[in-house]
């Protein structure tokens, strides 16, 4: 049974956080609707499915905003090992291959990506570990033990191969460990290990298309009609938006299908073309306010676990935002990372909103822990 804190599921909700997420979701729905117009089918199936995922995600968010976040601490290791089991099973014939990645379980109308579950429990386990040893995490044994927690799901994600999700898992651990450790040699050791790992991966792990993406990132003119086509069209779309954009449904790059994966990987480019600089600034502003709320909630958390949980959720979402927008403007290689709350996708949307719900419970617990019920 989930430890429900209060029968009133809407009590002490951080409405500013909810409204911010809602506005970001509305931007996503507008972009997905616009892309559907360009497809000319008239059914708007993905638009309707996205509404359904958002409804389910919002329900999950409100439910888990009312579940004591310490529940996640109690089941952290169980959930972590279950998520690893799913990551192993998806590599067997039980898994389905979509866009070259064997990382999905097809359940008829719904496809579930187990790496999304791994993201949740990596955050929960790291928060659990940090709250117990953050003040003594200055020995190399801590580096290896905590690094192993992230390394296992990282390797399983690379094996699919899902290089983008693997990078999210890795940098969630790396950034959080960087904030916690007091030993500068830890960071130096990690950076040297990264270089060695990249060299090893280049010769023995990366698929040819992943090498092409990296080569194109280093030299965009290397293959403008092949591996560099996606980024080239995305950059054109971003530049074409100018100040106020061409209007929803009137972006030539998105409507004429020049932008690939326009509902997922490159949805930022669609918004930039059709809503222009003004739309981009609004989206970035909402994300900045979202991270500000996570920061404030971390400060008011009743204990270290709540603080680390809030920070880790913020880091995970920041990595998604940074990589996705970086891909769209040609600053980072294409890795198939979606934009939180905006990109199309069932399991991704539900997981992101569930994480927001968990942070909302940290907020609620912080208010309860203060005798005067002070809000900030």
SSE arrangement, N to C: HHHHEEEHHHHHHHHHH
Widest sheet: strand ordering: 1-2-3
Number of strands: 3
Q: Count up the helices.
A: 14
- For the record, the count of structural domains works out to 1
Report the sheet with the most strands, covering strand number, pairing sense and barrel closure.
3 strands, antiparallel
Broad shape: globular
Secondary-structure content class: mainly alpha
Our Rg estimate from Cα atoms comes to: 21 Å
**Strand composition percent:** under 5%
How far the N terminus sits from the C terminus, by CA atoms, comes to 32 Å
Poorly predicted tracts of residues: none
Assign a percent range to the helix content: 55-70%
Describe the fold and architecture.
By secondary structure, the chain is mainly alpha-helical. The protein has a three-stranded antiparallel sheet with strand order 1-2-3. It has helices at 15-39, 45-64, 70-74, 76-89, 114-133, 140-158, 163-180, 184-204, 208-218, 229-240, 252-255, 267-300, 304-328, 346-369; strands spanning 96-98, 101-107, 110-112. Strand 2 (101-107) and strand 3 (110-112) form a beta hairpin. It has one domain. The two termini are 32 Å apart. The radius of gyration is 21 Å and the shape is globular.
Reconstruct the topology from this structure.
Elements: H1 15-39, H2 45-64, H3 70-74, H4 76-89, E1 96-98, E2 101-107, E3 110-112, H5 114-133, H6 140-158, H7 163-180, H8 184-204, H9 208-218, H10 229-240, H11 252-255, H12 267-300, H13 304-328, H14 346-369
Helix pairs in contact: 1-2, 1-12, 2-14, 4-5, 4-6, 5-6, 5-7, 5-13, 6-7, 7-13, 10-12, 12-13, 12-14, 13-14
């Amino acid at each position: 049974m989930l430890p429900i804190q209060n029968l009133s599921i809407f009590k002490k909700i951080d409405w500013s956080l909810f409204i911010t997420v809602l506005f970001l979701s509305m931007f996503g729905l507008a972009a997905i609707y616009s892309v559907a117009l360009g497809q000319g089918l008239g059914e708007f199936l993905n638009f309707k499915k996205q509404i359904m995922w958002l409804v389910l995600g919002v329900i999950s968010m409100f439910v888990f905003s009312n579940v004591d976040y310490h529940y996640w601490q109690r089941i952290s290791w169980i959930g972590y090992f279950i998520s690893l089991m799913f990551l192993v099973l998806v590599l067997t014939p039980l898994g389905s291959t979509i866009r070259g990645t064997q990382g999905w379980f097809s359940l008829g109308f719904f496809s579930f990506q187990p790496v999304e579950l791994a993201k949740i429990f990596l955050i929960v386990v790291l928060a659990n570990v940090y709250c117990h040893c953050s003040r003594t995490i200055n020995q190399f044994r801590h580096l290896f033990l905590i690094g192993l927690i992230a390394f296992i799901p990282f390797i399983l994600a690379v094996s699919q191969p899902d290089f983008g999700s693997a990078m999210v898992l890795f940098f969630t651990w790396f950034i959080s460990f960087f904030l916690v450790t007091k030993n500068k040699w830890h960071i130096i050791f990690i950076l040297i290990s990264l270089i060695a790992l990249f060299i090893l991966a280049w010769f023995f792990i990366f698929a040819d298309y992943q090498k092409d993406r990296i080569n194109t990132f280093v030299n965009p003119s290397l293959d403008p009609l092949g591996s560099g086509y996606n980024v080239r069209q995305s950059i054109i779309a971003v530049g074409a938006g100018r100040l106020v954009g061409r209007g929803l449904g009137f972006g030539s790059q998105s409507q004429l299908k020049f932008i690939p994966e326009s509902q997922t990987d490159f949805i930022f480019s669609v918004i930039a073309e059709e809503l222009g600089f003004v739309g981009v600034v609004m989206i970035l502003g909402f994300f900045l306010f979202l991270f500000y709320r996570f920061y404030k909630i971390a400060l008011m958390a009743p204990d270290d676990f709540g603080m680390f949980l809030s920070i880790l959720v913020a880091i995970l979402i920041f990595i998604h935002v940074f990589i996705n927008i970086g891909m769209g403007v040609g600053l980072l290689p294409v890795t198939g990372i979606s934009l939180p709350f905006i990109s199309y996708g069932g399991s991704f949307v539900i997981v992101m909103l569930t994480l927001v719900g968990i942070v909302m419970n940290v907020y609620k617990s912080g208010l309860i822990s203060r005798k005067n019920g002070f809000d900030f």
